[in-house]
Design brief:
Structural class: alpha+beta
Oligomer: single chain
């Protein structure tokens, strides 16, 4: 990693995450996030199996590691009908097969924070999502006590649309989550009475489907992408009071 005492003016570039990033990506996640991700997750990221990701690297490093990850963002494409925000989108019956981009994880190593790297990574996600006409929004979750992350996403013009009680479960404790949405391609939230009624109807249809599935299966069955979202978009600094010395929360970068 970068020597914090050395004078250094980094030159940051952004590229897709690739198989050679596997080890460093796994190490950074272990250092930054309060849960441990399965090996399958990292294999999916580096091989692009259902996950779209970007890496930040410092090509001006003097230690020869100028292609080593110093920041990353991982995302997954979600069909609108399988998401939890279908009711928050403007109703448009002419659009079929609509999708969303969900941010799974976002992180920057300690010595490269506060250089705008996290901002640039999120902008890469928004640019990518905007290029797909069927994409209606980018969305993510933030743990409710993390004011720096909340401020960061508000600055990025994400809209705080919902509070989800007991969304996170970390070291035996439940924590609420805030749901943030960045609307794209006409996907803004409904505003007319007819659109609001359509959104409410969509919400209750989705709730009915979820409850029906839960009753049929005996327990909640989550789609594959959901298992990655417990610590989504965590940009972290240590917080011993809440999570313990080895754990972390968001920080803006």
């Amino acid at each position: 990693m970068l020597d914090p005492g050395a004078a250094h003016r980094p030159t940051i570039i952004y590229r897709p995450i690739q198989p050679s990033d596997f080890e460093v990506l796994e190490q950074i996640h272990a250092a930054l996030f309060p849960i441990r991700y399965e090996r399958e997750f990292f294999l999916d990221v580096v091989n692009g199996h259902g996950i779209v990701s970007w890496a930040a690297v410092d090509i001006s490093r003097l230690d020869g590691q100028n292609d080593e990850l110093i920041g990353f963002v991982t995302t997954r494409i979600i069909p609108v009908t399988e998401s939890e925000i279908e009711d928050l989108l403007r109703y448009d019956p002419s659009r079929k097969n609509q999708i969303l981009v969900y941010i799974l994880t976002l992180g920057v190593v300690e010595h490269y924070r506060n250089l705008g790297i996290a901002t640039s990574l999120v902008r890469e996600v928004i640019k990518y999502a905007s290029s797909m006409p069927s994409c209606r929004a980018v969305y993510l979750h933030v743990i409710a006590y993390n004011q720096p992350a909340i401020s960061f996403y508000k600055k990025m013009l994400f809209r705080l649309v919902r509070r989800l009680p007991s969304f996170y479960y970390i070291q035996g404790q439940h924590y609420d989550s805030y749901l943030f949405v960045f609307y794209l391609n006409g996907g803004r939230s409904p505003c007319s009475p007819l659109e609001i009624m359509a959104a409410v109807a969509t919400y209750f249809r989705g709730l009915f489907r979820m409850l029906s599935a839960k009753l049929r299966n005996g327990e909640k069955s989550l789609p594959r992408w959901s298992k990655y979202k417990e610590t989504s978009t965590l940009l972290v600094t240590q917080n011993k009071r809440i999570l313990g010395a080895e754990n972390a929360i968001h920080q803006s970068g």
